[in-house]
Amino acid sequence: MTSPVYGYLLFTLAAFFVIGFVRLFIQKVNLHSLRWLFGAFACWPLYMTDEWLRLTNATQWAPIYGLSEVFAVVAITCCYRAIKPMLIATPSARKRLWWPVAVTGVLQLSILFISSQDKQAWFAASPVGEPLYLWPAYLPSLLTSFSVLLIGILITEHIQHYHRYLPLQAVDTKPLKVPRLAAVMGSVVGIAFVSILLVTAVMFGFLKVPFWESFHHLMLGASLVLVLFSLTFVRSTLPSPIDYAQLDHGKASPYEISSMMSKAERYVATSKAFKKPFLTLQSFCEGAQLEPTLFAIALQVNERKTFQRFIFHYRLEYVKNELLPADTSLASRANVMGIESEKFLSDYLGKYFSQNAT
């Protein structure tokens, strides 16, 4: 594919990549994950090597053509390692996470079975059909798309898990959510799935698309650039201190639950913790000398269910007993919106306590 549109798309992606790389230095975001972001950024131009060779018609480099697929898997894996500390306070290091990289890297070496003369012809048009003979041409692309799909799903699940349990660890949750990052990862999953369908259809001859390799590289390349660019923006997340495995089992005796709830209630009454803006489970438990996961288990057993609702209860009592009698305009708005409204509490009281922090 050597059309002007192809060159335009390739240079547009390169421009976004350069802008994102510059932003990484300027914004100084995700400093705790900087090495993983650098690794991901370094992999993108390497992954696009085949397309640069095709664009410049550098057939003398045909022997290395097809050996760059694994860099897309390395890039998305580095993104996973950069995103996870944003969501979990003590992320575990999984060696299995690198299995897709190892498998893709080893199997892409099968492209060396194809002669350089045959690969030079692919600069003009990629192969179509003949899966038994040309499987080294198709297998690395399939594995790359599948690996990006798999790791993209893992990242998306972590973000969904983070959003699901956010009320357990924070009161004012809206500034802590990352919906745009979730949307970006959802698009990566969708694009990887489409790429799998494309390569499979071409491999078995269902589609006669002579430039499917370029489509495959541009689709995954664009999705990776989108993720990298997205990660250069500053985000206020709250890495969770909760042990989710222990939380799911929810094992705590009635005495432990009663003791923790009594201790938490005494701490709220003496410290007026509900007045603190952006109060989190971690800071509350440090002050009350409670273990975050055990307290979260106690809250789930309790009728208030989450840390957010636990603090909302005290904020609501404060509104009824202190603010409403002193502010008639607030009382009228509360009657219209409903004094029990969580929207009223989160929006108004969040601003109120931020402006009147004590």
From the structure above, extract its key features.
single chain, 358 residues, mainly alpha
List the helices and strands and how they pair.
Blueprint: H1 4-27, H2 34-47, H3 49-56, H4 70-87, H5 99-107, H6 116-122, H7 131-169, H8 179-203, H9 212-230, H10 244-249, H11 254-271, H12 281-288, H13 292-301, H14 307-326, H15 328-337, H16 342-355
Tell me the radius of gyration: 26 Å
- Alpha plus pi helix count: 16
Helix-strand sequence: HHHHHHHHHHHHHHHH
Give the biggest beta sheet. none
Report mean pLDDT, rounded to a whole number. Answer: 85
Helix content: 55-70%
Q: What oligomerization state is this entry in? A: single chain
Q: How many beta-strand runs?
A: 0
Give the percentage of residues in beta strands.
Answer: under 5%
What are the segments in which pLDDT stays under 50 over at least 5 consecutive residues?
none
Distance between the termini: 64 Å
Net shape: elongated
Q: Supply the helix-strand structural class.
A: mainly alpha
Descriptive account of the structure:
There is one protein chain. With 358 residues, this protein is mainly alpha-helical. The protein has helices at 4-27, 34-47, 49-56, 70-87, 99-107, 116-122, 131-169, 179-203, 212-230, 244-249, 254-271, 281-288, 292-301, 307-326, 328-337, 342-355. Helix 1 (4-27) runs parallel beside helix 9, helix 4 packs parallel to helix 9 and helix 8 (179-203) runs antiparallel to helix 9 (212-230). The radius of gyration is 26 Å and the shape is elongated. The mean pLDDT is 85.
